[in-house]
Q: What sequence folds into this?
């Protein structure tokens, strides 16, 4: 360290002075040691706590981090790069350590497509404090330190003296237990995805590059041959089908499926069909929602394919059916890009709306004002906010605080797991009330309309199982709590007359998935088109007087 002086030669302030290599090594070790708890804990667990194997890979990764940091220790760019790494690593560590999430491509996509209100629930006092301690403070220390740089060729030689041995040691460490590491990574794909911050940052760069290409995608027309099999609305009632796209509801907490608590007291009194073994297309809205409405099955779906192809709403429109999307969430993810999309978040009743969000009562209020105007075959999609966390308590009114004490904080560390589950169960009970409300309104319109309702949640939610909270886990390792979703079907008297009740009851016991939504809705609306697959229309076999 040395003392600096002002212009007049008097002492001003002192700053520690370190060489660029020393600063690089300290930064690398800081990132690895203090912002990678998830990576190290998973490694110790997956390697069965074998010290030699564990410490060998620890040394190898440390050498790689050092080599990478030394390689970018260039004057003028070194500090900005290291500060970015520190801040990104601190933020990533918070979400991975606290919620058990994996920051993969789809998690980044989901974050990119959220809104400020939803994101705000994650910026808790705990997160701010964490960022100050693990991000801002070390970044400030880095700014304070005076870094010594040398001439280019001297620096090149000195850096190579560090980088080359570090890479050799990393290679030897990796090869020393190569079979064990390879087998562990194959069995546990999530391990290296938590290596902070380089893997998340590399994924973010890949996402950004893909976003640029996505802007120029034009959807290919789909189902332009579509038509309603029984023709225009003459001599029959117009069909009105309400498709409710649920949010973050998991099947495990639906009493319709056997959950011990009564979370579906209203739906159980309705004449519904509940499909208790239904799997989602993804574990986050940005994946599941577009996939649900696409013609592709989960095995064939990709984000790009979804953008490049028109979806269910477009095919319905080609058939001459009126289509609307009402949103009480973060938008339709471009599903409704070519039909009428209406956001209910901004203009809702203050009783149910605050902070840029509304409870799902706004959907029922809008339905009350609209349903009497329906004169043609219509499909209405209601996109719920449902059970979106972590602020579960904001999703239901005081009257639905049935399970207490309920967590009243977005900071899960402020609550017990029982309180978190109580709050979540209250959201499910409120969704039960909303769905029953939709059915009540459709029943009142049966005199003039042929009505039906289909509800599917986009994905589930983890509530502490296996140390995981929220959702968005990579699908191949996602627990059932995130992939098993509730699926409810209600048919009005005219719609139900077209099907065998016994056959439908039998279908509820079979495994179902998001793959069926596209084809089932087309079938229920009597839309004929080459792109409809009767085998994926779960009601096709139960239709009276029709082969499908």
A:
């Amino acid at each position: 360290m040395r003392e600096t002086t002002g212009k007049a030669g008097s002492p001003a302030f002192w700053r520690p002075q370190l060489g660029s290599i020393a600063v690089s090594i300290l930064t690398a070790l800081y990132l690895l040691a203090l912002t990678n708890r998830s990576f190290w804990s998973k490694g110790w667990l997956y390697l069965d706590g074998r010290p030699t194997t564990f410490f060998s890979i620890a040394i190898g990764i440390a050498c790689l981090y050092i080599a990478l940091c030394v390689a970018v220790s260039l004057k003028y760019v070194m500090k900005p790069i290291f500060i970015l790494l520190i801040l990104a690593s601190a933020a990533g560590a918070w979400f991975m350590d606290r919620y058990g999430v994996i920051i993969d491509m789809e998690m980044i996509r989901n974050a990119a497509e959220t809104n400020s209100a939803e994101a705000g629930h994650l910026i808790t006092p705990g997160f701010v404090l964490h960022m100050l301690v693990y991000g801002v403070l070390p970044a400030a220390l880095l700014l304070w330190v005076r870094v010594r740089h040398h001439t280019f060729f001297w620096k090149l030689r000195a850096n190579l003296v560090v980088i080359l041995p570090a890479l050799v040691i990393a290679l030897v460490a990796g090869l020393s237990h190569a079979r064990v590491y390879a087998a562990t990574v194959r069995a546990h794909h999530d391990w290296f995805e938590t290596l902070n911050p380089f893997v998340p940052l590399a994924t973010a760069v890949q996402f950004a590059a893909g976003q640029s290409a996505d802007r120029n995608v034009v959807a290919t027309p789909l189902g332009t041959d579509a038509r309603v099999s029984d023709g225009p609305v003459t001599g029959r009632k117009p069909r009105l089908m309400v498709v409710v796209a649920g949010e973050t509801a998991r099947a495990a907490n639906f009493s319709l499926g056997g959950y011990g608590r009564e979370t579906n007291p209203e739906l159980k009194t309705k004449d519904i069909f509940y499909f208790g073994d239904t799997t989602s297309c993804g574990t986050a809205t940005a994946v599941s929602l577009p996939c649900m409405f696409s013609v592709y099955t989960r095995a064939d779906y990709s984000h790009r394919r979804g953008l490049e192809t028109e979806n269910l709403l477009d095919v319905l429109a080609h058939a001459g059916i009126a289509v609307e999307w009402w949103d009480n969430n973060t938008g339709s993810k471009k599903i409704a890009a070519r039909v009428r999309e209406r956001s209910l978040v901004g203009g809702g009743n203050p009783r149910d709306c605050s902070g840029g969000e509304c409870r799902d009562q706004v959907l029922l209020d809008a339905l009350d004002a609209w349903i009497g105007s329906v004169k043609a075959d219509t499909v209405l999609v209601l996109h719920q906010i449902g059970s979106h966390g972590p602020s579960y308590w904001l999703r239901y009114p005081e009257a639905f605080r049935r399970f207490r004490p309920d967590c009243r904080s977005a900071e899960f560390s402020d609550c017990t797991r029982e309180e978190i589950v109580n709050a979540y169960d209250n959201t499910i009970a409120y969704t039960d009330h909303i769905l029953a409300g939709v059915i009540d309104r459709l029943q009142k319109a049966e005199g003039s309309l042929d009505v039906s309702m289909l509800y599917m949640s986009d994905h589930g939610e983890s509530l502490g199982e296996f140390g995981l909270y929220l959702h968005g886990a990579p699908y191949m390792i996602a627990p059932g709590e995130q992939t098993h979703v509730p699926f409810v079907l209600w048919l009005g008297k005219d719609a139900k007359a077209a099907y065998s009740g016994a056959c439908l009851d039998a279908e509820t016991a079979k495994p179902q998935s998001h793959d069926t939504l596209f084809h089932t809705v087309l079938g229920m609306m009597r839309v004929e088109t080459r792109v409809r697959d009767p085998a994926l229309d779960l009601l096709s076999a139960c239709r009276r007087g029709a082969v499908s």
Summary: Residues 1-10 have pLDDT under 50 and may be disordered. The two ends are 83 Å apart (CA to CA). The longest helix spans residues 417-444. The longest strand covers residues 239-246.
